Amino acid sequence: MNLEKLKKNYPNIELEELYELFPRITMTDYPELSEYSWEACHQDSLGGGALFLTSEMAQKMELEAGMRVLDLGCGRGASSIFLAKHYGVTVVAADNWVLPSANWLCVQREGLDDDVIPVKMDARNIFFPEGYFDAIFSMNAYLYFGTDDLYLSYLTKFIRNSGRICIAGPCYAEELRPDTPKELLEDESFAYHSPQWWGNHFTKMDLINVLHCQEHPKGREFWLDMIRWIIEDTQTRGESYPDFLLHDMVMLLSDQARFVTYFMLLAEKKS
Q1: Which residues of the chain have pLDDT under 50?
Q2: How far is CA 195 from CA 107, 113, 150, 243, 257, in A?
Q3: Each residue of 163-217: pLDDT tens digit?
Q4: Which of 19, 32, 73, 211 sits most deeply, having the most CB atoms within 10 A of its CB?
Q5: How far apart are CA 50 and CA 60, in angstroms?
């Protein structure tokens, strides 16, 4: 299907055609998620990557049972529940928009009452003691508050020496240019940065060592997979497609150079 046909016929397009354009992530690439269905990997996740990206981030963090982890911008808590359930860590599930009471119901449903603590908290006003956390995790959220040059010096106060910080989210393969096609722009585009930008951003203040920072090899696949989830979930619910969906479809199908992608960064606080 070409772009003109998509724009002309949307939303009245055969599902088989959409499914061909927007494939699911291959579950066999994630043996650690073998007990989950593809649908379960997306349930209560906000943004792309879902539990696929969560599981990769967790592996890089070298989590150990009993650690205290701050999940910053946890959304509906899917990542927090996964970390607690599979790694035996205690997770503070912090979000400024999703009510803790809603996340608490999900936590109770999973039997993790003593392991996940949902809180309403602005990332710029962390109300825990300095050095309290062993690790900090943030997926699809850090770009909303962490591009400030001074933020990392604030955040690192709350993690112990040698503690790890792992962030991941949507990005561009390179920094925006004046001639970047408008089809590739999002409402939040000016907070999207390249992996190189993020690496430089994290090393400005000599507070941490960056252990890993690069474009995710499945970055485009995460975007396509997210669109597929929205299509299938919307169909299951019998609802209309969300307003942004056509834009994101056109963006991805226009992006022959794989400019729109995902990044992951792992850092360790210096002792």
Answers
A1: none
A2: 33, 36, 19, 29, 16
A3: 999 999 999 999 999 999 999 998 888 899 999 999 999 999 899 999 999 999 9
A4: 73
A5: 16
Residue range 3-265 in CATH 3.40.630.30: no
Please calculate the CA angle 116-89-32 and round it to the nearest 5 degrees: 105
Torsion over CA: 151, 153, 156, 157 (sign) = negative
Structure tokens at 207: 């507070």
CA nearest neighbour of 186 among 87, 259, 82: 259
The crossing angle, in degrees rounded to 10, of helices 50-61 and 78-87 is: 50
Residue in 90, 97, 160 with CA at minimum distance from that of residue 131: 160
Orientation angle between helical segments 50-61 and 219-237, nearest 10 degrees:
140
User: For the segment 81-96, what is each residue's pLDDT rounded down to a tens digit?
Assistant: 999 999 999 999 999 9
**pTM for this one?**
0.95
**Domain range annotation of the chain:** 3-265
| Closest among 146, 121, 145, 140 to 70, alpha carbons compared | 121
